[in-house]
Design goal:
Blueprint (H helix, E strand, L loop, with lengths): L2 E3 L10 E8 L4 E10 L4 H4 L4 E3 H9 L2 E11 L10 H23 L8 E7 L3 H18 L3 E5 H13 L5 E5 L4 E7 L2 E7 L5 H11 L8 H9 L12 E2 L2 E2 L2 H13 L5 E2 L14 E2 L4 H27 L3 E5 L6 H14 L2 E4 L2 H4 L3 H12 L29
Amino acid sequence: MATFSLTSLPNYDRTTVISLGLEGSANKLGVGVVRHTLLQPLSAQFAGQTIQATHLAEALHGQQVDVLANLRHTYITPPGQGFLPKDTAVHHRQYILPLIAQALQEAQITPADVDAICFTQGPGMGGPLVSVAIVARTLSLLWQRPLVGVNHCVGHIEMGRQITGATNPVVLYVSGGNTQVIAYAQNRYRIFGETLDIAVGNCLDRFARIINLPNDPSPGYNIEQYAKRGSQLVDLPYAVKGMDVSFSGILYNVQTLAKTRLGTNRSTSTNDNADSKGQPSTCPPLTAEDLCFSLQETIFAMLIEITERAMAHIGSQEVLIVGGVGCNLRLQEMMGEMARQRGANVFATDERFCIDNGIMIAHAGTLAFQTGFATSLADSTITQRFRTDEVYVAWRDD
């Protein structure tokens, strides 16, 4: 059983840790301030020089977590355009310092009150990640505070667990850059299934560009609104391969339909589609709303299938949906129906915490920091392919 030296932990002789969190892995720049408070200092709770991992995890699990500030500024491009890494990096450099100053003011703290500076180390887009990491390193040197590099995916999971109260769920992590089904085991978040090509959010965003939907507040949100008005379910490729999924073929198919069939009747001469008089039936013209509806229904069904299979494998009765696409109410509704059939529960957060934000980086970073973890300046480089299961989750031992 792993043990920790009590005197090496920040809560050894005090109850409170305050952390600043900086997120900038994509087009959303987030700054958060979080305060973690133990009931008693660890020195008062445990005798001796060491503490077992199980006991430390129990102490951290019971602490109070207060969100002191959670600010975000999004880089939005014109309809039909995506966001390039270099332009997104410029946006982050422009807004991060004012956003940090505003967060400190809202939290009613000064730099002297900050115990750790947490930042997204990956995965994500290289340029934006570097821009935010440079600011984190600079503040660490100026304020003489430790750095804590955070895995973006783990940040989503820990924030979701904190907000919803889910204990040991199967996690569906769906965002613009990531699609994974995850479950915890032996101090790691294990990946049970994932996308083989593009992420679900990227699929939705790219289709939004084809039909020229606005990027404000987000392409995925606008697709969701269009889908609510769709009435025809168009057959699209259903690409589940074991525990993995593929979205590139679906995207190509629906893009082709958008370019060739919008506003056009669907007619066929097959007997299966004949009317009562034996004449070929003619369906109403396809609309952008129909395609958004069909795209959502197909890809969400795929995600729910692999999530349910993971639940059956580990015997879990909880599902936690995290990531920006997790805000989609139709996805939550479909997942809820599956869960009800299994007698399980679904947990999800609202846009404050499911969309990329600084508070999730601050929270996950603080949990790591409270186990004695810190990132040296030499190791604070970013990585665009930082796998979820590479993180040693020392703050959990269940």
